[in-house]
Amino acid sequence: MSHTPPEVLEALHALLNRAYAPYSGFAVAAVVKSGSGRLFGGVNVENAAYPLSRCAEQSATLQMVSAGEREIAEVWVLSRGLEPATPCGGCRQVLSEFAPPDTPVHCLSADGPALHTTLGELLPYAFTGRYLSKPDKS
Ligand code: THU
Q: Which member of 57, 69, 71, 74 is catalytic?
């Protein structure tokens, strides 16, 4: 069974070429599917002041929220090379703001195998708004 529809794969590869990663040389593309089924893409955008760099998953999530959507239903991440890169810890936390633990996360490598997992596997015991008595996104 294919986990990645052709339009998502096409979007990921197009995005990968737009990543701005002059310092690390490590390009990343991400696509999130919202609750309504729309696709939002993002790339990593680095900065000469390194800590201000933005990861691809966060770029995609910000695009989705800026478009008025607050539910992530599925996530894809693409990087080059043989090994699929998984979302960093910060990205797992950002995704978990809008994605439940059973959300599928597909980590694709351009030249190697894919890793299919869920956000809950990547970030067990997530810290969420429920600890702050703010369980909804309004
Ligand atoms: N990066 C992402 O875009 N997503 C991740 O989840 C892991 C890391 C980016 C950040 C930086 O621009 C480059 O990859 C190397 O760390």
A: 57
If you measure from the C-alpha of residue 52 to the centroid of ligand 1, how many angstroms do you get, rounded to a whole number? 12
Strand-pairing partners, residue 127, are: none
Residue type, 49: A
Question: Within 10 Å of residue 19's Cβ, how many Cβ atoms?
Answer: 24
**pTM > 0.85: yes or no:** yes
Is-catalytic flag, 57?
yes
| Closest atom, ligand 1, to C-alpha of 86 | 6
Instruction: Kindly indicate the confidence band of residue 2, based on its pLDDT and cuts at 50, 70 and 90.
Output: confident
Average pLDDT of the chain is 95
Could you tell me the domains of the chain? 6-132 (3.40.140.10)
